[in-house]
Amino acid sequence: MAYRNGVYAAFDGQGKVNPTESDIRYFQLLKAWAEAKGEDFQYINSHDKTRAVRDSSKKETLQRVLRERLSKSKVMFIILSNETSYDRGFLNYEIEKALDLYKLPLIIAYPQISDRSINDQWATLEKRWPKALKQRLKDPKRDDLSCLHIHFKKELIKRSLNHMTVHDKKYIGARLCYEN
After folding, report:
1. Which residues are in the Thoeris protein ThsB TIR-like domain (predicted)?
2. What's the whole-model pTM score?
3. CA-based, 20 to 30 A from 146: which of 24, 95, 130, 164?
């Protein structure tokens, strides 16, 4: 079995070519924090653990590489913005495999929300959930899920990455939250 120490970041590219127009900008920010000199932000990118694939690759090829990356991950970090689609692209596939096959804990980060408590914004945040996430989080039979919902803020992300791991699932539940 592969050594599972990576962070698998997932987001909706919104079908955009320009990265500043999609959620990839938040993924790029994570990488920038990890690469900055003098920072103590630890981030092992699961996407760097396998060969690169092009968006134009066959669907089966993309899915195989995504599964390989997930198999080497300790946690899935999902970025859900106002523009996240309910049912587009590979995000639903990634969530499905992360939860059902690889049993990864999830950190679900919400950019573009107010500083109010996550619990106070729950009804709004649920509307951002892609189909695969909604189906699993709302399933009363899924008592194996470990999902932490946070604001997209550096210190909360850093803390979350230290606590959520497939190696020690001490936090079980679909509605776990860190507050500011």
Report:
1. 21-112
2. 0.88
3. 24
